[in-house]
What does this fold into?
Amino acid sequence: MRSYLVCFRDSCREEYPIDSVLYQCPKCGGLLEAAYCWDCTAASGWKALWRNRRLDNSALEQSGVWRYRESIPFLEDVGQIVSLREGNTPLLAAPLAAQYAGLDALTFKHQGFNPTGSFKDNGMTCGISQAVRLGKTLVGCVSTGNTSASMAAYASAAGLKPVVFLPHGNISFGKLSQALEYGALTLQVHANFDQILAFVRQIADRAGLYLLNSINPFRIEGQKTIAIEMVDQLDWRVPDWVVMPGGNLGNCSAIGKGFLEMHEVGLIGRLPHIAVVQSAGSAPFFEFMKAPSEGGFRPVESPETLATAIRIGDPVSWPKAWSVLRRTNGVVERVSEQEIADAKAVIGRAGIGCEPASAATLAGIRKLVANHTIQPDDHVVGVLTGNLLKDPDYIYRYHTGQLKTPGGEPITSTYGNRPIDVAANADAVVGMLEKLQ
It folds into this structure.
C-alpha cells in the first residue's frame, strides 16, 4: 500500500515521501498528514483480524495501537516499532457522572490507563518509531507535562536522547517528575507554551532535533487508533457523540481522522458528532468557531487555566480540528475553572478519577445537555485524557478549600472531602464510623 505525506490544505495537496523530515508543507506552510491508497476490499477483513489478535501474547499484538497496524501502514519494517504496550484503555460506565451531566448513560474512554498515564502514548509510539526509521538520535518536544512524560519514556526505551522544553513554573510536578525519571534533558524556558514551540521549531533542524509535538503527523496516526479501539470495544456501534478536551487540538484532529478513515474504507456506516471542550481562559478555538473563516483564527496571547494540559493559546492543529468539526457536524464548548473542578470531583466520586484537563469533558457534556445540543438519551463517549495522579496538588487544594483560579479567585469545594484530624481515641473514632453505617 502506498503511503505518503500530503499537505492538509485543499488548495495545495502537495505530496511528499513518507520518510521526509517535515512538519509543514514547504510549498504553502500548511500542516501535513499521512495518507494512504486504501484497499477497501482488504479492509473488509480487518475487524476479524484485529479481534483475533487479542489472543496473541506477542508484544506487537498486545499493543492497542499496533494491533490495528493496517490502519497506520506508514512503517514498512515492524522491527523498528517501539512499544510499551500502549492503548488497551478501557471504556468505563459512569452512572454518577451521567446523572450529573443530565444523561441516561455515559461512558468514558480513559486514556489515563496508558503506560505513562495519558493519551500521548498512543501517538508517541508512532512518532518514536518513525524517528528510529529515520535514524534520529535526538528527539524533543515542548510540553506542559503529558507529552514530555510520554516522549521521554518512549525515547529512552528506544535508546534515543529526549529533550524537553517546558514553561518555567507552569507544569505539574507529577508530570515533570516523569520526564526527569525517564532521563530527559529538561530545559525550563521563561516563556509560555506557544512562544517556546515557535522557538523550538526554528532551531530543530539546526540542532538535529526530531520534533514530536502534535505538529508531527505520525503522532496523529497513533492517536487516531483511540477511535478505532473505541468502536471495536463497542462491537462497531458508533456513538452519537464523542467529547474530548481541547488544548493543541491534536486529539480532535486524530480521533476525527480515525473515524473519517474508518468510514471511508467501510468499517463504520456513519460518523459521530465530535465535541471539543476548552477552558474559558484558553479558548481560542471556541471563539474562532463563533464565526469561522480561513483567516479568522486569533490566538490567545496569555492563556490561563489550572488545567495545564490544555493551557494553550495558539493550537497548531486548529485547521485539522476545524475540518473534523465541519465533517462531523461537531461543536466547541468552553467551561469555567469552577465547572472543571466540580466535574473532576464527580468523576472521582464515580470511582474513576482523572487529571483536571480531562474533567473539562464532563463539564462540557453537562453544558451541551443543558443547552439541548446533546439529548439525554444520546449515546455519548467522553474521552478522559490523563490519569488522576498527574496533578495531585490540584486535588488536595480542591478538597481542602485552597484551590484558586489563575486570577486568585477562590474555587468553591462543592464536592470537597477534607481530611479530618482525630485523636487516638477508640471511642471517638468508633462513634465517627458508626455514623457512616
